[in-house]
Amino acid sequence: MLNINNIKIAVIGLGYVGLPLAVEFGKYHSVTGFDINAERISALNTGIDHTLEVSEAELAEATHLRYSSDINQLKDCNFFIVTVPTPIDDYKQPDLTPLIKASEAIGSLIKHGDIVVYESTVYPGATEEVCIPVLEKTSGLVFNQDFYAGYSPERINPGDKEHRVTNILKVTAGSTPEIADFVDKVYNLIITAGTHKAPSIKVAEAAKVIENTQRDVNIALINELAVIFNRMNIDTEAVLEAAGTKWNFLPFRPGLVGGHCIGVDPYYLTHKAQAIGYNPEIILAGRRLNDGMGAYVSTQLIKTMIKKSIQVSAAKVLVLGLSFKENCPDVRNTKIIDIVNELQDYNIDVDVYDPWVNVEEAEHEYGIVPIDTPQENYYDGIIMAVAHQEFVEMGIQNIRKLGKESHVVYDLKYVFAKEDTDIRL
User: Fold this and answer.
1) Active-site residue numbers?
2) pLDDT > 70 in the chain, percent
3) Residue 226 and residue 220: Cα distance in Å, rounded?
4) What is the rounded distance in angstroms from the CA atom of residue 99 to the CA atom of residue 105?
């Protein structure tokens, strides 16, 4: 059995989740951060985090943390934390490939008494039904006899500088009561907000996946209300402000639901539900509605352009923002691309401007090359798609200057007053 004083931690996957975790542990304990991306490791070794989640000063504080893209550098570790992505494929099915490959790699290293903790979002049962068998097969060891497992779902909110890994309460779980206690104790070394020890790994997995499913369904409801109110020529924001005066009204707002969590996690739950013979109607209905909002936004823009006698074919439209949320460079599963693709189907020339995103990443992921600077007096339509601070500070007058004499400004994020824009979601 491991001792809290002799743990050597390995964090597998140094993205938005893994790096902040590795840095916090690395301030006090021996940690090896592993990532298959050698360029990522090189940048971190020079004190640069391209995700902007961890500052150069914070990286420097983690004096016990080393980085590597060589899996063999983890041989001396005995407490493995897996933070690899769990995306969906083109058919909205869970893609567990990164998780399986990480488990194979760890299985080639683990020794008697080691513990493997998963943080990646999965459906209930995935850790014990998918990951553990891979670990057993690769290592030749017996689960809960030779090695053990835990689950502690990540709760990272990219771009959020207030809610950080240490001050967000952490759910923990282990494969035996003793391991659950030990895993909980390890996380309490850095989590100042405290922990909640779940009674089983499946409970912890389920808790994570419903956190974002709940948000997804609620946003879908508000999106549907926005569609209804738009047809009735009622301002959605005004309705929500009025309803929000009741103490227990939930403050959700309409919008595009992208990113690595809310737009993905519900499909993990629905996949498992269907596998056990249940069709989750409400969750899937919410997903369909939210996945269709990009097309809806495009249609609303085009209708407004036509009403202003603006030629649609060959029109020029500027989309302000590509990342999935404000003040963040993360473009994973951004729904802005749905708007761009839909507008291009109408033979509209679309420029995307986002000073936060990496140009090479945008081109690699979506075939889009964001422009350096938008031109003045150039666009027939302008969409405020992401409320980056830079765009907010521009003000509506400077944004209007980017448009031709006759143009349409569509404010998806309720940044400006209703009377200052042509259309809002």
Assistant:
1) 261
2) 100
3) 10
4) 10
